[in-house]
Design goal:
It is a single chain. This protein is mainly alpha-helical and about 190 residues long. Helices cover about 75% and strands about 0% of the residues. It has seven helices and no strands. Helix 2 runs antiparallel to helix 3 and helix 4 packs antiparallel against helix 5. It is a multi-pass membrane protein. GO terms for molecular function: metal ion binding; transmembrane ascorbate ferrireductase activity; transmembrane monodehydroascorbate reductase activity. Its cofactor is heme b.
Length: about 190
């Protein structure tokens, strides 16, 4: 089952990249890198802790799982910062308002939440001695971090779907003729 999830994740990332490659300018970095960030890196980072019986990750030592998770999350943050910068710059260049759609507003929340999650992860791995001042155990904080991360991933998927329903996506793919039946189904959900 884990292999299927990984393949679907990679295919969805490739779909976003291929759909956006035709766009001119830096805007194309926004949808493609957000897909790489959340559907690619973040999904894999969360999935490394999967307890699926067919998974190879439970056989990895916990420290290696955390190291792989950390590297993937660094990729998530780097890609999302570049993608956020691309859309912010594009909005300024086109003299359009920021964060006026549900996609933009919830996307901003997800972006900020991702940065906060990264800081929380740093405290859990590198700055453990400071955790004692919070009067919570390491195990409690780990559960909070994991739960928050899964919720963050779920909401980020919702934001990606909202992006597929955006005016730009609908207009762009109608005008280029690159629209497919699969995209029609996703947009009309």
């Amino acid at each position: 089952m884990k292999t299927v999830a990984i393949v679907v994740s990679i295919l969805l990332v490739l779909l976003f990249v291929v759909l956006c490659i035709w766009e001119v300018g830096i805007f194309k970095l926004h949808p493609s890198l957000m897909a790489v960030s959340y559907l690619g890196c973040m999904f894999q980072a969360i999935h490394i802790f999967s307890m699926d019986d067919t998974s190879c990750s439970p056989s990895l030592p916990r420290r290696k799982q955390i190291l792989i998770h950390s590297f993937l999350q660094v990729g998530t943050i780097i890609c999302s910062i570049i993608a956020f910068t691309a859309i912010y710059t594009t909005k300024i260049q086109r003299n359009k308002p920021h964060f006026t759609s549900w996609h933009g507003f919830i996307g901003l929340i997800v972006f900020i939440w991702s940065l906060l999650q990264a800081v929380a992860g740093l405290f859990l791995t590198i700055f453990q001695r400071y955790i004692r001042s919070l009067r919570l155990t390491y195990a409690q904080l780990r559960i909070y971090h994991a739960t928050s991360g899964v919720l963050l991933f779920t909401i980020s998927c919702f934001v990606l779907i909202l992006g597929l329903a955006s005016n730009w996506f609908k207009i762009f793919h109608k005008s280029t003729g690159k629209k497919t039946d699969t995209i029609d189904i996703i947009i009309n959900l």
